[in-house]
Amino acid sequence: MKKKQSKKKSQNKKRKNYPEKTAFSNLEKTSNQISVPKGSSSGIPKYVADRMARRIFFTAGIPTILGMSVFVVSYIIVTRNIAEIPPSSTIAISALFFLLGLAGLSFGILSASWDKEPGSFFGIENIPMNIQRAKAAFKPASQNFEENS
Predict the structure, then answer these.
(1) What's the Cα-to-Cα distance from 95 to each of 22, 48, 88, rounded to whole Å?
(2) Which of 131, 114, 111 minimizes the C-alpha distance to 45?
(3) What confidence tens digit (pLDDT) does each residue in 14-68 have?
(4) Can you tell me the distance from the alpha carbon of 93 to that of 131, in angstroms, rounded to the nearest whole number?
(5) Is 123 left (phi over 0), alpha (psi -120 to 50) or beta?
(6) Burial level of 7, CB count in 10 A (0-12/13-18/19+)?
(7) Cα(123)–Cα(121) distance, rounded to whole angstroms?
(8) Fewest C-beta in 10 Å: which of 44, 109, 133, 145?
(9) CB within 8 Å of 60: residues ≥ 6 apart
(10) How crowded is residue 102: how many other Cβ atoms within 10 Å of its Cβ?
(11) How far apart are the first and last CA of the chain?
């Protein structure tokens, strides 16, 4: 009976050894063909993204941290026999904080001013304009989909 060869030996036989010149020449040819267009970007400017990140940290980050800390505080209160807290109230309070964080995430993105100089403290006046920008960003994609159908 013939002994089976291991996979490792059969894989070594299939490999082709190329000299270094030819192995890397194909790599250089393909990398030269790919070019990144250096036109104007339609993305979010850096100063606006930084402004959004700061707003998101305060309006979403803090409620989310509070939502997680509810479990820790509840555990400490129950284990030290300070008070009896039903698990349903712990879950309800933490869920309230997580929902507040989710609303804060949306608010932080939509309330950021796109001007060079920062807007007002809360930025409520920027929300309708940013909603229109978001709708306009998705509009071309939906129009192309409807034309192809």
Answers:
(1) 60, 30, 10
(2) 114
(3) 566 666 666 666 555 554 554 544 545 567 788 888 888 988 999 999 999 999 9
(4) 30
(5) left
(6) exposed
(7) 6
(8) 145
(9) 101, 102, 104, 105, 108
(10) 13
(11) 62
Q: Which amino acid is at 95?
A: A
Structure tokens at 40: 């104007």
Q: From CA 130, how far away is CA 126, in angstroms rounded?
A: 6
In this structure, what token pair is assigned to residue 51? 């402004």
Q: Residue ranges per domain, the chain?
A: 46-139
Of 45, 55, 53, nearest to 124 (Cα)? 55
Q: Report which of 23, 18, 38, 42 is spatially closest to residue 137, judged by C-alpha positions.
A: 42
User: How distant is the alpha carbon of residue 73 from its chain centre?
Assistant: 29
Show the 3-state SS of 114-126: CCCCCCCCCCHHH
Confidence check: pLDDT of 91 > 90: yes
pTM of this prediction?
Answer: 0.58
